[in-house]
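Notebook entry, cofactor series.
This is the third protein in the set we're modelling with a bound small molecule. For this one the ligand is magnesium ion. I'm keeping the input format identical across the series so the outputs can be compared line by line later. Sequence and SMILES below, as received.
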Amino acid sequence: MDVMSQPGRPDRAANPGAAGAGGSPGPEPLLRLRGISKHFGAVQALYGVNLDLPGGRVTALVGDNGAGKSVLTKSIAGIHQVDEGEIWWEGRRVHIHSPKDSAALGIETVYQDLALADNLDIVQNMFLGRERLRRGLLDEDAMERAAAETLAGLRVTTVRSIRQPVATLSGGQRQAVAVAKAVMWNSKLVMLDEPTAALGVAQTRMVLDLILRLKDHGLAVMVISHNLNDVFEVADRIAVLRLGRMVAQDDASAFDRQSVVDYMTTGESSRTVSERPANGGRN
Ligand SMILES: Nc1ncnc2c1ncn2[C@@H]1O[C@H](COP(=O)(O)OP(=O)(O)OP(=O)(O)O)[C@@H](O)[C@H]1O
Ligand SMILES: [Mg+2]
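Returned structure with ligand:
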């Protein structure tokens, strides 16, 4: 018991940027958006959107077609530049101007179709653009080992060979590889835009299990889904966008299916599910 009490590295005395972050109660979420607006020509896609994405939690982003879910995701991913608003990361104000900026913070986005290169195999996909070298040559063994370990760690067991071209994988397996890639690169936030839209029952199950495992690893997960069964199965928090506005955002237990549909379609709900009504996401 003698040396065990030795303290670790002292924390920084103060959390820079915490002051002035907006006086919200509770711990700082990993990602905090405040007043995000975005327009394309005459189309106002987002109006002053607030969103908190805490680590170790799955946040479902829901809303009807055209509500602004993908635009919001792409704004966080650095594909779109926002017109107005603040992005806070680990309590620090940041500016995300490109996908490179978001990747550098530890943000990984998994798109249904764009995530992987069909003609490359699983290992090549997982290391695309970040290949490991040994004496100037690709270190195939090390990359293969890391890819296999990551997939095994996530209990992705249905893939026959990690040297299989991604084109030959099922939809669920493709999603699994895209998620595994995000995990392998030590992401802190993984955003999945409609990850189960094209999947069958068993494949959907696999992706939902993966999402839960990401959360168990302490990552913040944001998942966009039109499937409320999936939403209620994996989400700790639910955020509802309607016509570019965040109309509700709270713990999943504050909602039921009907209230989510109410918020999606009318922007309000008269149903009170728990003792704590869903707030408007404004603080
Ligand atoms: N690149 C763009 N140029 C112009 N308008 C755009 C662009 N991207 C999105 N929009 C508009 O922004 C609004 C929000 O679109 P977004 O793709 O975010 O919807 P969504 O919530 O993802 O819908 P869905 O559930 O159908 O995927 C829509 O009115 C859309 O037409
Ligand atoms: Mg979309």
